[in-house]
Amino acid sequence: MTNKCTRKVYIVDGSRTPQLKSRGKVGPFSAGDLAVAAAKPLLLRHDFPLDALDEVILGCMMPGEREANIGRVAALRLGIPQSVPAWTVQRNCASGMQSVDSAYKNIGNGDADLILAGGVESMSRAPVMHNHTMVDWLGDFMRARSVGQKLKTFTQLRGKHLKPVIALLHGLTDDTVGLNMGETAEIIAEKFGITRQQMDEYAMTSHHRLAKAHEAGYLDEIEVLYDGKGNFYDFDDGVRPDSTVESLAKLRPAFDRKYGKVTAGNSAQITDGAAWLLLASEEAVKKYDLPVMASITDTQWAGLDPSVMGMGPVHAMTPIMQRNNLSIDDIDYWEINEAFATQVLGCVQAWQQDEYCQSELNLDKAMGEIPHEKLNIDGGGVSLGHPVGASGARIILHMCKILQRTDARQGMATLCIGGGQGGAMLLQNES
User: Fold this and answer.
1) Percentages helix, strand, coil for the chain, rounded to the nearest 5?
2) Would you call 60 a catalytic residue per the annotation?
3) N or C: at which end does the chain have fewer Cβ atoms within 10 angstroms?
4) Which of 93, 347, 357, 400 is catalytic?
5) Domain extent listing, the chain
6) Burial of 176 from C-beta contacts in 10 A (0-12 / 13-18 / 19+)
């Protein structure tokens, strides 16, 4: 299987919102608000007519109740002509990467030349729904014609009708194996013997790296958000620069209360955010005099046991490494989305084990160790959050920025996917 395209595909530019931590209340921005705010400065930076776009593709897992086909909603709100089609993709945690991959293939196969692709999620606004009992009751109430019938139906209302269905909790649970994502992380910790201290040390480093990146101005892809009350948001507000192993050790396990190691502190934060990339063919780059950041060399999707979904990155990266005859030393930087600290650590360990590589990846021997100093060098989901629809696009964008900043040659962006999948993309510096 090959996912390479016949034409070269460039990533021209990209932008994202700051990622805003959900704090148990409805956040200030809908998914549509976030998508528009991230895309508008990106489009204004480049001198091409908006009808030059062949399509708009947006990844999102839980759009708002008024945002059906949110890709189209965002496109129209941005002033992109009605003649430009727009659509939404959903591959759970990798929805943003799926949008970029779809754009890559459409351009690479000659079906398009210029595409706006990205991802968005407003997790703080995930739907809270009525249960089926309440839905049935509402149906009976609406069908009642007389006042007497309505009163009779009203008297049948009970407490059980009012129990809400919280979509976010269900979305982060895999019903096929009966496990939520945190429980799958616990399985990986047990499988690879990852300790609580190792998880907390990794989480602390993620926060420190993100804080340093903000301070050094390395996150210039962020566009400032403004709400209707005059407030502005210009940084990833889940970062904790003062995080220590000692403070993280005080947190109780979140998923296995008695024996668990996975806590809120060493897991990705529930967050709102959006990220976009502008992709172009060589013809479009020349026609509109566009800059280029990177090109996409290869992509891969993989499936695996949902109970260890966090291992998805190694299953997706391995075929790319094989197809392109690459060793770990050939990759300058790695972005493995931090769904959980233990999940990233498990992926790093898996590639070092002959047994795992032979039995699960059909390799002759271990791949080797990804250097810690080249992995998630500016933090990740543990420190800045994981808005599920957006993260795939964000890590691609940030890898492009890292390659530019360090004058490195190529990088890998990859993430695990709830339901037992993995996605990966190999990027080449073109700046």
Assistant:
1) 40, 20, 40
2) no
3) N
4) 93
5) 129-166, 179-218+254-263+298-429
6) exposed
401 contacts 333 by C-beta, under 8 angstroms: no
Supply the DSSP symbol for 265: T
357 is catalytic: no
List of residues 6+ apart from 57 with CB closer than 8 A: 71, 86, 87, 88, 89, 99, 102, 103, 115, 116, 117, 118
Rounded to the nearest 5°, which phi and psi values hold at 263?
A: -120, 175
Which CATH code, of 3.40.47.10, 3.20.20.140, 3.30.1490.20, 3.50.50.60, is assigned to 179-218+254-263+298-429? Answer: 3.40.47.10
Strand partners for 429: 294
Q: 10-residue block means of pLDDT along the chain (431 residues)?
A: 79 98 91 98 97 98 92 98 98 97 98 98 87 89 91 89 80 81 94 97 98 97 95 96 96 90 95 98 98 98 97 98 98 98 98 98 97 98 97 98 98 97 98 82
**pTM recorded for the entire structure:** 0.94
Whole-angstrom distance, CA of residue 219 vs CA of residue 157: 52
Catalytic residue among 207, 315, 386, 398: 386
